[in-house]
Amino acid sequence: MIKSVFWIALGASVGILVVTKGSKALRKISPAGLADSAGGVPGRIGGAWSDLTDDIRSAAAEREFELYRALGVDVPEDDHR
Questions:
Q1: How far apart are CA 50 and CA 64, in angstroms?
Q2: Handedness of CA 35, 37, 40, 42 (dihedral sign)
Q3: Is it the case that residue 59 has pLDDT exceeding 60?
Q4: 45 or 18: whose pLDDT is higher?
Q5: Do residues 81 and 61 touch, judged by C-beta distance below 8 A?
Q6: How many CB atoms lie within 10 A of CB 30?
Q7: Quick one: average pLDDT of 22-44?
Q8: Is there a contact between 65 and 80 (Cβ–Cβ < 8 Å)?
Q9: Is 56 left (phi over 0), alpha (psi -120 to 50) or beta?
Q10: For residue 68, how many other CB atoms are within 10 A of its CB?
């Protein structure tokens, strides 16, 4: 009986440890985790990442506005970023 309780407790502990470590590892390699780690690096890497995302967002907004105009959808000028 005591051996069974020991093995159950050991298995539960190992299971919790594996899930905890695994979720931390997955969080690190997720896109958000990679962006956070790049932004936290001192120097030009974090700034370059920020510049890249800003450029992509502005280009996407411009293209969206062009598509709206091409389709004839009425978009107020203040929506264009």
A1: 21
A2: negative
A3: yes
A4: 18
A5: yes
A6: 11
A7: 73
A8: yes
A9: alpha
A10: 14
Q: What gap in Å lies between CA 1 and CA 27, rounded to an integer?
A: 39
Q: What is the DSSP letter of 73?
A: -
Round to whole Å and give the CA distance between 10 and 6.
6
Contact 43, 53 (CB under 8 A): no
Alpha-carbon Rg for the chain, nearest whole angstrom, is: 24
Q: What is the dihedral of CA 49, 55, 61, 62, to 10 degrees?
A: -170
CA angle 36, 38, 43 (to 5 degrees): 130
CA separation for the pair 15, 18 (Å, rounded): 5
Alpha helices in 30-43, H assignment, sequence order: 31-39
**CA dist., res. 43 & res. 46, Å (int):** 7
Residue whose token pair is 């510049």: 51
